[in-house]
């Protein structure tokens, strides 16, 4: 598959644990023009630095996350902040490095997984859905369980369980569902995984099959194009998106929790945090989950959207 349009920039798709640090999205280098896939950290730094030195065009970095890895987005923003600080340019010049909006949001991921659960239910009403994700950290892993609960509660009526793939979680989850009497278990990835990760998630003899990617290649490329277009539009107005990215993990993890403060139940106090735009959690109307199903063409034709999972914050 080839790109539908040529980017007016060099593009870097940076991957975290949701894409096995870029391994699951490597194919996009062939599908999209002038696009490089990189993990975060030093490889990202070196890639962006090389692209900046090779031409005068802007470099747009897209965090390939479904919203489950906010610390990764903040780390990417830090890398770009350091690189931007080292670029010599007139004060009035348009920035050359941009951090695009995250590929997806938690609301989108929930909607995509609900779609998968519905399709599994249609193919076999007695099958269980096993949502899988690579082990990351306690907070990002816990998000998978929260999303699975929403899929179970607002889904098609399937049994829905979670497998955190840390070498033990996958087989243990399969064994649990087998003991509960399910003869077919469909493993659905909560990430960019496009093929089975090992023997446990696609074992026909055990009644386990891998669902496949939750988005088609075409849908993924369409979203990337939109993210890059949005970033270039903002860049033209002097907004590189980096400062918003630096705040992506604000409120994530123990360090930001107020759960154990003496007066945490009181809602009238001011924490003194500046109000900033959240980099990942507020999808715009063009980012509606229905636009990113396995068959995006059908969603584009539809004017009736399900807003049940778009929460107001």
Describe this structure in words.
It is a single chain. This protein is elongated. It has 2 domains: 172 residues, no CATH class; 105 residues, Rossmann fold (3-Layer(aba) Sandwich). The protein has 313 residues and is α/β, with parallel strands linked by helices. The N terminus and C terminus are likely disordered. The longest helix is centred in the C-terminal third of the chain and has 20 residues. 35% of the residues lie in helices and 13% in strands. It starts with 9 loop residues before the first strand and ends in a 12-residue tail after the last helix. Helix 2 packs across helix 3 and helix 4 packs across helix 5.
Low-confidence runs of at least 5 consecutive residues:
1-5, 256-278, 280-313
Question: Reading side by side through the largest sheet, how are the strands ordered?
Answer: 2-1-3-4
What is the string of SSEs from the N terminus onward? EHEHEHEHEHEHEEHHH
Q: What portion of residues belong to β-strands?
A: 5-15%
Query: Which class of secondary structure composition applies to the elements?
Result: alpha/beta
| Radius of gyration using CA atoms only | 20 Å
Q: What is the count of DSSP helices, taking H or I runs of 4+ residues?
A: 9
Task: Please tell me what the overall shape is.
Answer: elongated
Work out the number of β strands.
8
What is the total domain count?
2
Which percent bin holds the helix content? Answer: 25-40%
Q: Average pLDDT, to the nearest integer?
A: 82
Largest sheet: 4 strands, parallel
Cα-to-Cα separation, first versus last residue? 38 Å
Organism: Mycetocola zhujimingii
Protein name: Cobalamin biosynthesis protein CbiX
Region (Disordered): 262-313
């Amino acid at each position: 598959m080839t790109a539908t349009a040529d980017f007016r920039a060099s593009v870097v798709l940076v991957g975290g644990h949701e894409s096995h640090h870029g391994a699951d999205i490597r194919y996009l280098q062939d599908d999209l023009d002038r696009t490089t896939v990189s993990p975060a950290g030093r490889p990202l730094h070196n890639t962006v630095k090389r692209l900046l030195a090779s031409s005068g065009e802007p470099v747009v970095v897209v965090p390939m996350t479904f919203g489950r890895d906010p610390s990764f987005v903040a780390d990417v923003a830090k890398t770009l902040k350091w690189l931007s600080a080292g670029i010599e340019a007139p004060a009035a010049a348009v920035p050359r490095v941009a951090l695009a909006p995250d590929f997806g949001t938690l609301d989108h991921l929930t909607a995509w997984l609900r779609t998968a659960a519905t399709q599994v239910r249609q193919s076999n009403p007695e099958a269980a859905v096993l949502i899988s994700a690579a082990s990351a950290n306690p907070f990002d892993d816990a998000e998978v369980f929260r999303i699975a609960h929403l899929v179970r509660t607002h889904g098609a009526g399937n049994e829905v369980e979670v497998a955190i793939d840390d070498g033990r979680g996958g087989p243990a989850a399969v064994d649990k569902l087998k003991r509960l009497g399910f003869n077919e278990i469909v493993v659905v990835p909560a990430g960019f995984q496009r093929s089975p990760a090992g023997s446990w998630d696609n074992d026909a003899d055990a009644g386990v099959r891998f669902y496949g990617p939750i988005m088609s290649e075409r849908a993924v490329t369409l979203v990337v194009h939109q993210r890059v277009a949005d970033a270039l539009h903002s860049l033209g107005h002097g907004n590189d998106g980096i400062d918003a990215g630096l705040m992506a993990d604000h409120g994530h993890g123990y360090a930001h929790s107020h759960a154990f403060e003496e007066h945490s139940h009181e809602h009238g106090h001011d924490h003194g945090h500046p109000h900033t735009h959240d980099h990942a959690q507020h999808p715009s109307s063009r980012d509606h989950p229905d636009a990113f199903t396995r068959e995006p063409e059908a969603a584009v034709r539809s004017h009736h959207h399900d807003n049940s999972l778009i929460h107001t914050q």
